[in-house]
Amino acid sequence: MTSLRPAAFGPRLLATTALFGALIGAFALAPAVQAQTTNAPPPAATVRTDVPADRPWMDTSLDASTRADLILKEMTLAEKLQLTFGYFSTDQKWQVTPIKNYVFPKEGLPDSAGFVPGIPRLGIPNQWQTDAGVGVATQRSPNPRQRTALPSGIATAATWNPEVAEAGGAMIGNEAFLSGFNVQLAGGMNLLREARNGRNFEYGGEDPLLAGVITGHEMKGIQSNHVISTMKHYAFNGQETNRNQMDHQISDQAARESDLLAFEIANEIGQPGSVMCAYNRVNGFYACENDWLLNQVLKTDWGFKGYVMSDWGATHSTTQAANAGLDQQSGWAFDRSPYFDGALREAVNNGYVSQDRANDMARRILWAMFDVGLFDHPVNGDQATTIDYAKNGKISQTDAEEGMVLLKNTPGLLPLSKTAKSILIVGAHADVGVLSGGGSSQVYPIGGSPVPDEFAPNGFPGPKTWYPSSPMKGIQARTQATVTFLDGKNVKAAAAAAKKADIVLVFGEQWTGEGIDAPDLHLPNNQDALIEAVAKANKKTVVVLQTGGPVVMPWLSKVGAVVEAWYPGTNGGEAIARVLTGEVNPSGHLPATFPASLDQTPRPVLEGDPKLDADSHPMSNYNIEGAAVGYKWFDKKGYKPLFPFGHGLSYTTFALSDLTAAPEGKGLKASFSVKNTGAVAGKEVAQVYVSGSGWEAPKRLGAFKKVEVAPGQSESVSVTVDPRLLATYDSASKTWNIAAGDYKVMLATSAADIAQTITVHIDAQTLNVKGQ
Ligand code: BGC
Question: Model pTM?
Answer without folding.
Answer: 0.94
